[in-house]
Amino acid sequence: MMKSITLLLIALASQVQVEAFQMQMNMPGMVSKKVIVTGAAGRTGSIVFSLLNKDPRFDAVGLVRSEASAKKLIAKTACNLEEIVVSDVTQMEFEKEAENPHPWPYALDGAEAMVICTSAVPQISKVSIIKAMLKIPMNILTPKKKAINFRDLQFKYKPGQYPEMVDYVGQKKQIDLAKKMGVKHVVLVSSMGGLDKNNFLNQIGKDKNGEGHGDILIWKRKAERYLCLSGLQYTVIHPGGLVDPPEANKMQL
Questions:
Q1: Contacts of 84 (CB under 8 A, 6+ apart)
Q2: Residue ranges of E strands in 154-204
Q3: Following CA atoms 164, 169, 175, 177 in sequence, which dihedral angle do they give, to the nearest 10 degrees?
Q4: Which pTM was predicted?
Q5: 29-60 pLDDT, tens per residue?
Q6: Among all residues, which ones are annotated catalytic?
Q7: Residue 12 vs residues 53, 63, 72, 157: alpha-carbon distances, Å
Q8: Strands (DSSP E) along the chain, which ranges?
Q9: What does 78-123 look like in DSSP terms, one character per residue?
Q10: Separation between Cα atoms, residue 36 and residue 110, nearest integer Å
Q11: How far apart are the C-alpha atoms of 145 and 136, rounded to whole Å?
């Protein structure tokens, strides 16, 4: 994961360096670049927010959907409450500009970049855990069979938190927000495998007949395309397996 986050920081920092070079003749010092991190309370989002928050080149703002997520982010990063904005982007109506020309919190104004870290997160089915545990005695007595067959475990998404709603509809809204606010650069943390319809991750959330709310990589790919056609300057990051071994901090360029 850290390799992908490093690439993200490079993408943002390179723009900061260019802008700083262009303005250094007129400014006595460098002004921190305001960056919105969406999904900041999540696993990837909290890492991105924390790293940006520690870097003097950036003024990081964590955007979360609920007060519970805000408390979670504070516990993870020890950040200040004023560095967090609680707002549900999916509820913002940009089409009714005459009625509400400023549907987003004013605390987000002035942002030059946005890092989109939101993603649907599956939860393991408790019923599948029980079924798998009940099979353990028989599996142990069967030669060459593992005690638990992890393929028997099933995952599902919370109602309303399906990949289509989070990774496509939700990310489209965030891109629209960036465009409305005049954000200059959007970094989308997506995933590898967007062109592989048969990737096992797309099966999460589906039943044995292939029905249900899945296809997370396909919806992520659609959001990428929407960003590419938005007219915004963008960077799309395709991380692979998100793990944090010690050697993950080492990177060669």
A1: 40, 61, 62, 63, 64, 70, 73, 74
A2: 155-156, 185-189
A3: -150
A4: 0.82
A5: 567 899 999 999 999 999 999 999 999 999 99
A6: 191
A7: 13, 18, 25, 32
A8: 33-38, 58-64, 84-86, 113-116, 123-124, 155-156, 185-189, 233-237
A9: ---GGGEEE--GGG--SS-TTT-S--S-GGGTT--EEEE------E
A10: 10
A11: 10
Q: Residue 39 is encoded by which pair of tokens?
A: 């999904």
Tell me the sheet residues that pair with 63.
38, 85
Distance CA 234, CA 126 (A): 40
The one-letter amino acid code at 27 reads M
Structure-token pair, residue 21: 């070079």
Check residues 13 and 154 and name the one with the higher pLDDT. Answer: 154
User: Which tokens belong to 211?
Assistant: 């029905």
Residue type, position 142, single letter: T
pLDDT band of residue 61 (cuts 50, 70, 90) is very high
Would you call 202 helix, strand, or coil by DSSP?
A: helix
Within the chain, how many helices (H) and strands (E) appear? 8, 8
- Kindly state the tokens that stand for 250: 């080492």
**131 CB-near residues (< 8 Å, 6+ apart):** 152
Alpha carbon distance 125, 90 (integer Å):
27
Q: Which residue carries 């007219």 as its tokens?
A: 231
